[in-house]
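Folding follows sequence. Below is one example:
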Amino acid sequence: MSQYPAATAPVCPLGLPGCSGRIRERGAKCCANCSRTRHRTTIASLSPEASVDADRAKLKTSSELLALRKKYDESLRLIDTLERRLDIAGAIDSTVDTFTIEPMVGSGTSEATPVIVASDWHLEERVGAEVGGLNFFNLAVFHERGQRFWKAAHRLVKLLNQDVNISTVVLALLGDFITGAIHGEENAEMNELQPIHAIIEAQNMIASGIEFLLANTPYNYVVVCHSGNHARTTKTTRFSAENGHSLEFLMYKHLAAYFREEPRITFIVPDAPHSYIRVYDQTIRFMHGHQIKFGGGVGGVYIPAAKKIAKWDQARHADLTVFGHFHQLLDGGNFLVNGSLIGYNAFAMAIGAAFDVPKQLLFMIDKKHGRTCTWPIYLSSKAAVDVG
C-alpha cells in the first residue's frame, strides 16, 4: 500500500457528477470538466430579506460613487480656478513698472478766496431739557464754541493756502448773534443776559476773533454784515426800517469804528437786506435768511429757498446766495445755508427744522473754477452735547 493517502476528487459545488469543481463562469453557469456536454444550471433565488439587503447595499454603493464623482469634479474645477489665479498673479508680478510722480509746485497764478460764515449764535439763550437732551447750551458753552470757531477757521484757511495763493478772506457776519427779547416773557425766562448785555458779549467775541485772525495770518479781510431778526427792538419785523431797530446793526457800526485804523480790514454794513459781493467772476448774495418762509414741509428749506432766490435773481442775478437763520448747514447748489453755534433749540424744533449739530460754514471761491470746497466747522465737544 502507498504511504500517501489517495487523492480525493474535487467536489462540484453544484452537485454535478464528474465535475472537477471548477466553475468556468461566475454565477455557477457551467462546469468545465463534467463531460463533453456542458451542463447549464441556475442558482436558487435569494430570499426576499436577502434580496432587499442586497439592493440596499447596491443603492448605497451607487450613492457613494455619485458623491465621490461630485467631489472629484468640484476638485477639478477648484484646481483649474487656482491655476488661473496663479497665472494671473504671476503675470501681474512680472509686469510691475513704476514711474516717478513729481510733487506739484504752485505756479503762482492759482488764486482763491475763502469765505468764513458766522451766524445764529444766540449766545445768551439756555438750551437743555426742552429739546430732549439733544443739545446743551449756556454762556460757558458759548465761550468754548466761539473760541473753537475762530481757531478752526484759521486752521482751515491755512490748510487751503498750502495749495493756492490767498490774499483776501471774506468774513460774513449774518446775524442772530443774540436771541434778544422778541418773544417777550419766554426770552426773559430762558436768556442769561438782557439784550444790551448780550450784544456787548457778541461784539467782544467777534472783535477778539478778528484780532486773532489779523495777528496770525497775512491776509486782508472783507467783513460783510447783516442783521438777523432776533436782535430787533420791535415785536414785529419792519422790513423798510429794520436796521434802525437792530442792535446788531449798531454792533457792526461799532466794530467798523473799532478797526478803522487797521488797513487790512474792510467792513461792509449795508442798509439793504441783501449785499452783493463780487469775488473774481462770481457774484455772491449775502443776507440773514428770515425773508425766506419755511413751514416745515417735507422738502425742507430747499423748495422755499429756491423759489425765493429765483424771484430775487430776476431783479439782480447772483451765482451763489449765502444765508443762515435755519440752524442747519445745507448746500443747495446755488445757495448755502449756514448752521448755528447754539445748535438745536426750541426754535429749530418749532419751525420743523431738521436736527443738526452746532456748526458754522467755510467755503472757497477759486479764481478759475468757482466754488471748489464747502466745509463745516464743527463746534461742539461730545461732553457739551451729553450734558443735560
